[in-house]
Amino acid sequence: MITIAGIGFGEKNAVTIEAIGAMKEADKVILRTVHHPSVELLREENIDFEALDYMYETIEDFEKLYQSIAEYVFDQAKDKSVCYVVPGSPSIAESTVKRLREMTDDIKYIEAVSFIEPCFSLAKIDPVGGALFLDAMDVDIANINPRLNIMITQAWNEFLLSDVKLKLMEIYDDEKIVYAINNAGIKNEETCDKIFLYELDRKVKADIRLTIIVPAEKISGPMDIIKAAMEGKSFKKTGFDEVDRDKENLYKILFEIGENINEGLYDFKDLFTED
Description:
Blueprint: E1 2-6, H1 17-25, E2 28-31, H2 39-44, E3 50-51, H3 53-58, H4 62-76, E4 82-86, H5 95-103, E5 107-110, H6 116-123, E6 131-135, E7 149-153, H7 158-169, E8 177-182, E9 191-196, H8 200-203, E10 210-214, H9 222-230, H10 235-238, H11 245-262
Parallel strand pairs: 1-4, 1-5, 2-3, 2-4, 6-7
Antiparallel strand pairs: 7-10, 8-9, 8-10
Helix pairs in contact: 4-5, 9-11
């Protein structure tokens, strides 16, 4: 039996009594990482645990890393009860949990307050219009819609952080405003830096507690579509092809108009005058 317990966004009071109880009852407690402020509470409660930080230091391939963590937890639970402890909530942006779900259904989840609320609060963004949550390893052009707020977690080394930046720059302008957040929700420690996208791996230090928020692009009408084309964006990268089918052809026509204006084939006034 595997119990997966979240320990919240960082403050000790975010760790639930249920989570502490599950750790004390388990035959073995495994922490994905010891780099979390609430781990001190576990020590105060005399909870013995094994931390898997050594895997981050010895396994360079990200896909293999998360798979190795999941397999280790699964193997340990074959002959004993295991409580696997993760930062935040086990249901939010936890790649190792996703892989464990694929291995077994014999899992109990103990939820906790995630880092989502404090992160969006620091960035002063209301995600009600839509948000996409991605592990830094999963950032790819194919799974990003610019019309959504994007939250990226676990950019824990410099190579991965740089890779995230380069992939985002294939979609967004280099000077797109993004937010780099560390220790969200932890009093006197949380930070939120508002920077240009191209500065992401220059002004920000990679850290397992780093969260990146890319605000949604505001697309309000036809002129926004024409403007996007004139700025040299591709239709696929704008997210316009994610609209319902009834609008897609119209959007493509408007996008083509913007491209033609950009290439000097005609001017704005040509849109409003007759031959």
